[in-house]
Design goal:
Elements (H helix, E strand, L loop, with lengths): L3 H34 L10 H6 L5 H10 L26 H17 L12 H4 L4 H49 L2 H21 L5 H12 L1
């Protein structure tokens, strides 16, 4: 027989671990958002409803993505009540006040090839269906994107710093080689060697005496 109590305990442990992981990921996402745009007005360990309540107008999301990738969302609709913490029981905002921000944010994430979610995932009914995990995954992907971008920028800066030093070193080595073996000196040495070979041949050349006498007689005649 199958031990139902053992299976039930295993399922409970699995569900408990998943819940703990989801709680930790929400905490990590909310802490990173606050490090980028300031306090969100929610608890340190937000529930799914708390996290979605401060994101559903799209203002936080747009400001975050513009900070890590300037110009990602050219137009952000500023909502007057965004500075006040929104509770889940508060009256829903008019659609035109937040839908444009959310839509522009999702377009930007698509262009940056970051896993996104559906605009409907920020609605009330979607929270109970577990869609908040997609929102959290998108936020953590933005965090990873920022970290990767910072590493790439640092590597690029290191390359720019090393490049002039390398060029300067090569220039110094070239100047030392030129000083040790100047081209003009090499040409002078080659020319001197040539003259040493040709001069003795010309100085040792003597005209036969017979030819000299004949040429003199010819001149007198």
């Amino acid at each position: 027989m199958v031990d139902c109590s053992r299976n039930g305990g295993h399922d409970f442990n699995m569900a408990s671990r998943k819940a703990e992981e989801a709680t930790w990921r929400r905490y990590e996402a909310s802490q990173w958002l606050e490090s980028q745009v300031g306090p969100l007005g929610i608890s340190n360990q937000p529930t799914e409803k708390e996290l979605v309540s401060c994101l559903r107008n799209g203002l936080v999301l747009c400001n975050v993505i513009n900070k890590i990738h300037p110009g990602a969302v050219p137009k952000v609709v500023d909502i007057p009540v965004a500075s006040q913490p929104l509770t889940w029981d508060s009256q829903p905002l008019p659609a035109y006040q937040y839908f444009e921000n959310v839509r522009n944010f999702l377009v930007a994430t698509e262009e940056l090839k970051i896993p996104a979610f559906e605009a409907s995932d920020l609605e009330r009914d979607s929270v109970d269906m577990g869609s908040v995990s997609k929102v959290v995954e998108c936020i953590l992907s933005l965090k990873s994107f920022q970290e990767s971008k910072q590493i790439n920028n640092q590597n690029e800066s290191n390359k720019q710093i090393k490049s002039p030093l390398h060029m300067q070193s090569a220039s110094i080595m070239h100047s030392k080689a030129t000083t040790a073996y100047p081209s003009d000196a090499c040409r002078s040495l080659d020319l001197s060697a040539t003259l040493e070979k040709t001069v003795p041949i010309e100085s040792n050349f003597q005209q036969p005496e017979g030819l000299i006498s004949q040429s003199c007689l010819f001149m007198f005649i």
